[in-house]
Design brief:
Blueprint (H helix, E strand, L loop, with lengths): L1 E2 L5 H10 L13 E3 L2 H9 L6 E5 L8 E2 L2 E10 L5 E7 L4 E6 L6 E7 L2 E6 L5 E5 L3
Antiparallel strand pairs: 1-3, 2-7, 3-5, 4-5, 5-6, 6-7, 8-9, 9-10
Length: 134
């Protein structure tokens, strides 16, 4: 996995492979949903938000279906909370675009000071700090 930022190994295991899924490094992430090429291009345009990029070859390890299509190889782009997007190539070389969410966050405001705010997900505990001063 290629890292864009500094993240602890335990955080990586929890959010990018899933708790107890460390041996699933070549599977597609859970909760993959197909998206169209336009939405994929919009995600790519937000390049500042990724923290990791990964190449997986799910066909070799069995968990290779995306909406009924067998995926041969996939490039995944992860955001800080473990969600992300990707492109997979099927056995015939056709691209398939998708997004994934390990948690559908339900954020609550923990604190706010001026332009700074901290939110925490009620479901998974993920915390997001936002500074809107710039």
């Amino acid at each position: 996995m290629d890292w864009v930022g500094k993240y602890e190994y335990d955080l990586v295991k929890k959010y990018h492979y899933g708790e107890g899924r460390e041996d699933k490094f070549n599977e597609l992430p859970e909760n993959c949903k197909p998206i169209d090429e336009k939405k994929f291009a919009q995600y790519i345009g937000y390049g500042y938000g990724w923290v990791a990029i990964d190449l997986r070859q799910p066909r070799r390890y069995g968990k290779d279906e995306l909406n009924g299509v067998k995926i041969d190889s996939a490039r995944l782009f992860f955001f800080e909370d473990g969600s992300g997007f990707g492109v997979g190539i099927d056995y015939d070389g056709n691209p398939h675009y998708f997004e994934f969410y390990p948690c559908e966050h339900d954020f609550e405001l923990v604190w706010a000071r001026g332009f700074e705010k901290k939110y925490k997900c009620r479901k998974c505990g993920f915390e997001r700090y936002i500074d809107t001063s710039d």
